[in-house]
Amino acid sequence: xxxxxxxxxxxxxxxxxxxxxxxxxxxxxxxxxxxxxxxxxxxxxxxxxxxxxxxxxxxxxxxxxxxxxxxxxxxxxxxxxxxxxxxxxxxxxxxxxxxxxxxxxxxxxx
Amino acid sequence: xxxxxxxxxxxxxxxxxxxxxxxxxxxxxxxxxxxxxxxxxxxxxxxxxxxxxxxxxxxxxxxxxxxxxxxxxxxxxxxxxxxxxxxxxxxxxxxxxxxxxxxxxxxxxxxx
Lengths: 110, 112
Hints:
The complex is a heterodimer of chains A (110) and B (112). Helices cover 0% and strands 53% of the residues of chain A. Chain A has strands spanning 5-7, 10-14, 19-24, 31-37, 44-49, 55-58, 61-65, 71-76, 85-92, 99-100, 104-109. In chain A, the strands form two sheets. In chain A, strands 2, 4, 5, 9, 10 and 11 form a six-stranded mixed sheet that branches. A five-stranded antiparallel sheet of chain A has the order 1-3-8-7-6, with no helix packed on it. Chain B has no helices and eleven strands. In chain B, the strands form two sheets. In chain B, strands 2, 4, 5, 6, 9, 10 and 11 form a seven-stranded mixed sheet that branches. Chain B has a four-stranded antiparallel sheet with strand order 1-3-8-7, with no helix packed on it. At the A-B interface, strand 4, strand 5, strand 9 and strand 10 of A face strand 5 and strand 10 of B.
C-alpha cells in the first residue's frame, strides 16, 4: 500500500478566499485522481493528472501533478459555498488498486 | 446512462449477523471496486474485481468477501458482524482497473 497524505485535514474559509490543499506520497504514481464527496453521496471524479508537472484547470480549480509524480495540489480561487465538501486524492500504480488519501474537509461559509 | 446503483441504502444489523451488499455497475464497466469509509480511517480498499476475477484485495479479515457475476454486478458479504464494521460501504465501477472510478452513493451499515 502506498501511503497518501493529504493536508490540511480540515479547512474552514469564507466565500471569496483562495485555498490550496496538498496530496503527498513517497511513492511514484502512474496517475493521480482528485475526487469531491458531498454528504450522503459517493465521491465524484474531478480530474486525472498523468504527466509529471502537468497542470489542469477546471473553472476555478487548478490541479498540479508534481514533476516526480509523487505529489499533487489543488488550488481553488475565490471559493464559493458550493465548493464545500471532502476532497480526496487517489494514486494509481500498476498492479495495485487505487489508493485514497483520508481527504481534506472543506467548509466555505457565505 | 444510469450510474452505479448500490442496495440497500441503509442497513441495521446486530453483532454476529451477516450481511450482503449489492452493486450494479455502469453498463459496459467491467471493473468493480469496494471501499469502506469511516471518519477515522477514510476510504479503505476492500476488493477489486475485473471480469469476475478478484484482481486485488485489501487488508481486511476473511469475514469480508466478495464476488462478481458475469453481468459485472458485484456483491460483498460480511459475516459475524462486529461493532467496528459500522461504516459507509462504497462500490465503484470503471471501464478497466486504474481507470477513473464512478461511485455509487453507498450502503450505510450500522451494527448494534
